[in-house]
From TrEMBL:
<dbReference type="InterPro" id="IPR005025">
    <property type="entry name" value="FMN_Rdtase-like_dom"/>
</dbReference>
<feature type="domain" description="NADPH-dependent FMN reductase-like">
    <location>
        <begin position="9"/>
        <end position="153"/>
    </location>
</feature>
<protein>
    <submittedName>
        <fullName>NAD(P)H-dependent oxidoreductase</fullName>
    </submittedName>
</protein>
<dbReference type="Pfam" id="PF03358">
    <property type="entry name" value="FMN_red"/>
</dbReference>
<dbReference type="InterPro" id="IPR029039">
    <property type="entry name" value="Flavoprotein-like_sf"/>
</dbReference>
């Protein structure tokens, strides 16, 4: 491809736990960043619980809201990855708060008058000790698409332990033939589509 610039990814870790506690969803998110690095993608992971993000549906809720700083990083990124645990078969409340804040992008436009999240690619990774990974992925992917993100093939990866089990992903050991392969596929398709959109952006209406 003619555009060989390094792409930028932002992973939002949606654990309920603040740092520096260990987080399985953060671990999987960092594994995605490692896989993306093989495709000339730089990036960072932000643990949302540490950012003082307020509830709301605007780009800035005021009063020291941490979302505007996160949003600036998102606007500078080509790729967004939501990393969430499963709780009661649902995305975490932190992940849902992120989606609610992204709702504001429905009213935002870029310098060409297009929806602000056009030309950005999104994916989701999920961990949990119960069933529900496909449901969680479906909820998050649909919401991201609604606000303008483009979703590639194989845009998800997950690990689900035994129902009611006590072993977390961070304690389960490497899973190269299952979750690991899904992460590699995700990194390949996400980076491919993101680079394609840098070369051929969506037209302005």
């Amino acid at each position: 491809m003619s555009d060989s610039r390094t792409l930028r990814a932002l992973v939002l870790g949606c654990s309920l736990k603040p740092g520096p506690q260990e987080s399985s969803s953060d671990l999987l998110g960092r594994q995605v960043l490692d896989a993306l690095a093989d495709h000339d993608v730089d990036g960072e992971l932000i643990r949302v619980a540490d950012q003082n993000i307020k509830f709301g549906v605007s780009t800035d809720e005021g009063g020291g809201d941490g979302w505007p700083a996160v949003r600036e990083k998102l606007l500078a990124a080509d790729i967004l990855v939501i990393a969430t645990p499963i709780w009661l078969g649902q995305p975490s409340s932190v992940a849902k708060m992120v989606l609610e804040r992204l709702d504001a992008e429905l009213s935002e436009t870029d310098s060409r008058g297009r929806p602000s999240m056009y030309d950005k690619v999104a994916a989701v990774v999920v961990v949990g000790n119960e069933d529900g990974a496909h449901h969680v992925i479906a909820e998050v992917i649909q919401a991201l698409n609604d606000v303008g993100f483009t979703i590639p093939a194989a845009a998800s990866a997950y690990w689900v332990g035994e129902a009611l089990g006590k072993v977390d992903y961070k304690d389960a050991g490497p899973k190269p033939d299952t979750t690991g392969e899904s992460v590699k596929s995700l990194a390949s398709t996400v980076s491919h589509l993101a680079r394609a959109l840098t070369e051929n952006p969506y037209p302005a209406e």
